[in-house]
């Protein structure tokens, strides 16, 4: 039998293959990248029995319309997502997130949109067939690295599956994406560059997520953050979650496809335990930040990992 693949009838806004990312390439200007909401990515793969690092299709806002060509597969969608399954006889089934479903040749999957969130994940049993660069098939569109020549998928593109014939694999989990009152933050390396009033404002007032947000970074607006030392510094290494403040006083949070160096002073860094929640905030949402110490951030990350393991262990 010929290879199974999805034909893309509608590409969606930002559909890319993602795995856990590529490590140890910051020195050549490549961040880790990988699935931006790690917990939902892991849940989606676990539900179809895949390894934690299997390639999944990540989409943002409006997802793709896909048609399965040849073969059959078991699939699942994770996130807060509205989608339909359109059978080849034109029968339409309403999709249920976190519950596996079968797809046969010529069935279509219409991922209509995410719901009050940004990212969702489609995983298929045995995973998608990705092209690997430096140990990962994750697509970084800014660097044009990864599968599909480093570009997001377009109409008429084809996404191949690792296996063409899969018997239905029935799994589900009752999972609700959690909300959080604050995004918790550690002090940045240039914390003392900012005025006392600005630091007070940063940790007491609301900021709004702007439309200038993608996998590279998130611009937020609120009270202007005043730099009293120097608005530009010698370029330094950056990590995911770092909050830079350029001269206009509006912070930028570095996300998964961030540049690896930058010359704006850094007021803080989002803790790893809160990153998944941050990236799912849509433009227009407001966010408040809370300062925590390193010891608390470490405990919260341990708790995040334990909670994730508990969720995955419930899938039998």
What does this structure look like?
The mean pLDDT is 94. With 316 residues, this protein is an alpha+beta fold. An eight-stranded mixed beta sheet has the order 20-13-14-17-16-19-12-21. It has helices at 38-47, 196-202, 275-279, 294-313, and strands at 5-10, 16-18, 56-60, 65-69, 72-78, 81-86, 92-94, 101-104, 108-114, 119-124, 158-160, 183-187, 207-213, 217-221, 236-237, 242-244, 252-254, 261-262, 266-270, 286-287, 289-291. The longest helix is centred in the C-terminal third of the chain and has 20 residues, at 294-313. The radius of gyration is 20 Å and the shape is elongated. It has two domains: 5-160, no CATH class; 183-313, Cyclophilin (Beta Barrel).
Provide a short characterization of the protein structure:
This protein has 316 residues and is of the alpha+beta class. The chain has four helices and 21 strands.
